[in-house]
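Reviewer 2 asked us to include a model.

Predict the structure of this chain.
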Amino acid sequence: MSIDQTKPFLARVTEALPELNPSERKLADLVLDFPGEMVGYTATEIAELASVSNATVSRFVRRIGYGSFDEARRAVRDEQRAGTALLRFSNTMPTGNGAVARHFETSQQNLEVTYSGLEDELIDGLARAMLAAPRVWFIGFRAGQSFAQYLGWQTSQVLPNVTVLPRAGETMAESLASLRAEDVVMLIALRRKPKLVGAVADAARKAGAGLAVLQDRPSPELAEADWYLTCATTTAGPLMNHVASMAVCNLVAARVIELSGAAGRGRMAAIEDGHRRFDEL
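Predicted model (structure tokens):
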């Protein structure tokens, strides 16, 4: 059986299933149910968890295209770091009492790490650039889409021209054809970001627009951004912890509003007048 070496870990295991003997299949079932086990255990410990021999573990990893258990474990660890949620599941994940406290502790740590890397000059420089821009674009994919929507909603209280992408039924090429120099693009590039992110950043640079990036891991394709905002999303559970991501978005939106001056207050007054006339709230 030939395994495609470019495929991720779980795809290799699934592809190999029809060819596995009963002992190897038993090990595969454990791996598929709790793939995160590969990172925290030795080959001997994995064998004990699956009730198979060490030799079975060795044969299994070779069958799925790895030279050794350590090589397979490194591959799983790399995919975990890249944000693969399923690979963060394990058979020994914390359950029951204390879950709330553990989540709070993780969130607090992420906030501390994130805010230690932020400076007033960075945030205020970005906020002022947005206020001066003809149009501000908030672009986010997957988890980043929610944060882009939040930023667009909040800053539109003082910014007259805000666009949130992607939009339903519209390609990025159709949307970004309107991108101009002096605009500002804020790209939310959180794991696991699609390959399209690099092309969007390149489009912003070619148009002469300012580019801000909110990310939780540096990416080579985003190396030429004008503003970098890094948020920690460390987690012990199956989902990335985005508490700090939201905090940074809130900070940016708040500073845009606070620095908007008389023009911003005038727009907010007009919105409040509209609320009264439309009886919406």
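Residues 138 and 167 are 11 Å apart (CA to CA). The chain is about 55% helix and 10% strand. We have added this to the supplementary material.
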